[in-house]
Each structure stands twice: as C-alpha cells, then as structure tokens.
Specification:
359 residues; mainly alpha; 15 helices; 76% helix; globular
C-alpha cells in the first residue's frame, strides 16, 4: 500500500522531471499507474478483511461478530478523518507551479508515510495464534451461551465441494461485491454531475456512519444470525441505490439518504463474509473458504467497474445502471436466504452424524 501511494504520486513525472531533468512520457505514466494498482490490490488483500477475519477466528471463541465489527469499524473512522484532512491537502495545500508542492502528490506522500509507520507497528506486535504467546483464545474457558456463528468443527472439504449452496453462496458473494463496490465507487462522480453541494461533508458523514454500521452488524450477527443481518444490510443497499437515482429530484434529502444507508450496507463486503463462512462451513476449512469468497467478492469489484463505466458512456449518466443494480441486489437477497436455510439444515444433519459416530 505504501508503494502504491509513492508510485501514484510519481506517476505524472513532474517531480522526477524537476529533480533529475528527465523527459517523461504518457507511456511511463501508464506504466507507473498499472504497477501501483497491482501493489494496491495486493495490499488490500493482505491487510484488510482477510487478515482480520483469520485473526479473529484464531484469537476469539465467543462474540466474533462484535469483535469483527469493532475492529473493522476503524476503517470508517479513518475514512472520515482522511476525507477531511486529504481534502484540505489536495484542494488548498499547493501551488501547482512547483511540483514539489503539488497538492495531490503531497496527499499520496502523507498517506504513504502513515501506512509505513502503521505497517511497521503491526508487523512487530501481531502474532498468528494465541499459542505463540502461551495464552488461550479469548473466551475459551468462559461459559458459552448458545451463540450465532459458534466455534463449530466444520465440514470436510469434500463435503463442501459436493454442496450446491457452496457455489450458489459464492455467486451471491460475487454479485454483492459487483454491485456494492461499483455504485459506492461511482456515487461521488454521480453526485458531482448532478451538482450536489457539500459533497465533502456528505462523504465524511458516510465514513462516520460506516464506523457505527460495522459495529451494529457485528452485534446483529451475534444476536440474530447471518440471515437477518445479511437481509437488513441488503435492504439498506437497495434503498441507498434508489436514493442515488433520485438525487436530481431531491438534491437535499437523497444524497444524505445514500450517505447513511450505503454505510449500513457496506458490511456485506467486509465483516459479513468471514462471519458467513464461519456460520455456514465452520473451522476446519475456514481460511480456505474465506479466501475463495473474498476472491470472488474482489473479482466482482473489477467486473462491476467495467459495467458501470460502459453504461455511463452509453446512457450519459449512472442512473440506469443504478436502477438495474437495485433489482439485481433484491434478487440476490432472495437467493442467498434460501442458501442460508439449506446450509443450516445441512449443518444440523452433519453434527448429528458426528455425534452418533462418537457414541
């Protein structure tokens, strides 16, 4: 992630040309951006939901939803702070005549420095398992109530591969990433096209709401389970999409409707995937299945971005594809609810079978 920020800052060549007198071409800029984007993808894969999900699974036995929500809520708070600080740096912190003071480059360099410091601290402090520190997983010896997403043994991989709901749920995870990342990534340019005022404040509020929505999703999972939590997050996503479609009709209310409800929806592509895997497939192949599903979710990001841009060029606005996305997400919610029901029945039968074999 640090390399991504540095390469992006250097991509236009102004700084390099100023320092070394080197002629910079468009091809060099493209090469820098491609390489930077590759590092960005690797950095996100190795530092966000994947690693948090694995660490929570290994370090906690109870209340995993709450723990996951609280940890990942830091993203929302960090995003709110970054939106305000970097907006000042980018828009007001530079004299464009001097490449050394180019504001967007300074924003990248500041972010790179922060990432480098935080990454170093994380590497020094984090341990893979409690056993490496001669301690037990938190909650291990507590009296466990009947909890959602309990620490159950899990299916064998052969059993999982034969289960149709494994593939159906994977498709739903792909569609979730396809839609959510695409409309959230293009919400700001859509509202800019509609000349919505106070966008920095609206997007900052979006990040703050995301902080609380992740915690709420974790608590909801522990209390009511995956079906309820996935359901209300999906409904919030559909309504926020409709809010984006209506910003030209209601330029005051609709942007704020999007800002808050899209934040309620975003746990679908973060904390919901590790919790979904734990609930449906258990401990035995947790890391492997979560890797598959997070990969599908991220592939949805890439595919969705292309589709959104295509529709934007074809129709001249994002509204059409946002309406289509609302329909797709509604169908996705119905299908995944059936998958959850089948998985729960399969799990109960599997655990009964294990109990009978151990008697």
């Amino acid at each position: 992630l640090t390399l991504y920020c540095v390469l992006s800052a250097l991509s236009d060549g102004a700084l390099i040309s100023s320092l070394f007198g080197i002629e910079w071409s468009v091809g060099a800029t493209c090469a820098f951006l491609y390489i930077a984007s590759a590092f960005f993808g690797m950095g996100l894969a190795w530092t966000t939901t994947t690693i948090v999900g694995i660490l929570v699974e290994r370090w906690f036995t109870n209340d995993k939803g709450k723990v996951m929500g609280i940890i990942l809520a830091a993203n929302g708070f960090g995003g709110a702070v970054a939106e305000l600080i970097l907006n000042v740096i980018i828009n007001h912190g530079a004299e464009k005549a001097d490449p050394l003071k180019a504001s967007w480059q300074l924003g990248y360099f500041v972010t790179a420095g922060i990432l480098l410091v935080v990454g170093t601290i994380a590497v020094v402090l984090i341990r893979n398992t409690p056993e490496e520190m001669n301690v037990e997983a938190l909650g291990k010896n507590s009296v466990a109530k009947k909890k959602r997403g309990s620490n159950w043994v899990g299916f064998d991989m052969e059993h999982i591969k034969k289960s149709k709901y494994f593939y159906v749920t994977g498709a739903c995870v792909f569609i979730t990433g396809f839609v959510l990342n695409s409309f959230n990534g293009n919400a700001r340019p859509h509202m800019e096209e509609m000349q919505i005022a106070n966008l920095a404040l609206i997007m900052s509020a979006h990040s703050i709401a995301l902080t609380f929505s992740k915690i709420l999703a974790g608590f909801a999972f522990d209390k009511f389970g995956i079906r309820f939590t996935f359901g209300y997050c999906s409904v919030a996503a559909v309504v926020s999409l409709l809010g984006l479609c209506a910003v030209s009709l209601s330029p005051v209310v609709a942007p704020w409707l999007y800002s808050v409800l899209s934040s309620v929806a975003l746990p679908l592509e973060t904390i919901m995937i590790p919790l979904l895997v734990a609930e449906m497939f258990g401990r035995k192949n947790y890391s492997k299945i979560m890797g598959y599903y997070l990969g599908l979710n991220t592939f949805g990001y890439a595919a969705g971005s292309l589709v959104v841009d295509f529709f934007r060029d074809l129709f001249g606005s994002y509204t059409t594809i946002f309406v289509i996305f609302a329909v797709i997400l509604t169908l996705n919610l119905i299908v995944v609810q059936f998958s959850f029901a089948v998985a729960k029945k399969d799990r109960e039968e599997y655990l009964k079978k294990l109990e009978s074999e151990n008697e």
